[in-house]
């Protein structure tokens, strides 16, 4: 999702008696570059072809974007190879790192494990599962099945339970804080459960169109608004960076 860099942003004059001398005041404030590991294109219900989404992300100042279209057993073998192909092509020239992925969506919980495996076999470098958001009738049992299947990210997990948060910690599945309308209604609960049980958090946009892409500053505000303190915000930011490094083999 996000990375940061140290910036020298203030130059302060030390003394009026020494007008020629200035000192640089370092401020260890973090400026984020967006890493967004959950987006959709026309290969599911997004509005843009991958190339346009990536171009718009570039203009927005993104560092990395994952293309994670909705998949089930009917389309996984059609979509994932397409996303792998376009990511490879775009990565030749784009300053934005493009990561092929998949979001396993509204499938029976008993099918999730096999589909996670299939997505990876087809070349998905990030595998999300569409979690039990409170604004859709996602099958109960999806959250825990996703965690047990080893999904990288459990998207918008809704009213995640204590047991599920503990399992996410143990399996290393990251719980998503989202900027997406509707799904974001339970951000506060998700953050609270993650902090209480030591599970990792990650912020994504779940973008379906150009207006859903957000600035890094807004991403930070969404994380803060979920109730996280500055340490928690920093940890979520670092999780995005860690996933990106792992995916890029760094
Ligand atoms: Zn969608
Ligand atoms: Zn999604």
Enumerate the spans where pLDDT stays under 50 for 5 or more consecutive residues: 1-30
Just name the CATH architecture.
Alpha-Beta Barrel
Strand percent estimate: 15-25%
Q: CATH top level?
A: Alpha Beta
User: Class by helix and strand content?
Assistant: alpha/beta
Radius of gyration: 19 Å
Rough shape? globular
How do the SSEs run, as a string of H and E?
Answer: EEHEEHEHEHEHEHEHH
CATH homologous superfamily title = Metal-dependent hydrolases
Helix content: 25-40%
- Summarize the main sheet: 9 strands, mixed
What quaternary form is this?
A: single chain
Number of helices: 8
Hetero groups bound? Answer: zinc ion
Structural topology:
Layout: E1 2-13, E2 22-36, H1 50-60, E3 62-67, E4 70-71, H2 76-90, E5 97-104, H3 112-121, E6 126-130, H4 142-148, E7 153-155, H5 162-171, E8 174-178, H6 187-197, E9 201-204, H7 216-225, H8 230-248
Parallel strand pairs: 2-3, 3-5, 4-5, 5-6, 6-7, 7-8, 8-9
Antiparallel strand pairs: 1-2
Helix pairs in contact: 4-5
Bound molecules: zinc ion (2 copies).
């Amino acid at each position: 999702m996000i990375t940061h860099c140290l910036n020298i942003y203030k130059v302060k004059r030390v003394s009026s008696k020494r007008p020629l001398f200035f000192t640089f005041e370092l401020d260890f404030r973090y400026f984020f570059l967006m890493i967004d590991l959950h987006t959709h294109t026309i290969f599911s219900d997004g509005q843009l072809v991958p190339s346009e989404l990536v171009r718009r992300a570039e203009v927005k100042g993104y560092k990395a974007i994952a293309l994670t279209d909705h998949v089930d057993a009917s389309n996984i073998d059609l979509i994932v190879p397409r996303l792998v192909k376009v990511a490879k092509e775009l990565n030749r020239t784009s300053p934005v790192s493009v990561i092929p992925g998949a979001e396993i969506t509204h499938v029976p919980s008993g099918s999730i494990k096999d589909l996670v495996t299939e997505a990876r076999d087809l070349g998905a470098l990030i595998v999300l599962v569409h979690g039990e958001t409170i604004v859709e009738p996602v099958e109960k049992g999806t959250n825990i099945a996703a965690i047990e299947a080893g999904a990288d990210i459990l998207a918008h997990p809704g009213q995640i339970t204590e047991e599920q948060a503990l399992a996410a910690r143990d399996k290393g599945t990251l719980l998503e804080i989202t900027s997406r309308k509707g799904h974001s209604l339970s951000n506060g609960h998700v953050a609270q459960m993650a902090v209480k049980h030591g599970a990792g958090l990650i912020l994504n946009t779940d973008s379906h169109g150009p207006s859903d892409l957000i600035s890094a500053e807004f991403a930070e505000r969404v994380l803060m608004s979920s109730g996280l303190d500055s340490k928690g915000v920093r940890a979520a930011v670092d999780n995005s960076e860690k996933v990106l490094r792992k995916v890029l083999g760094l």
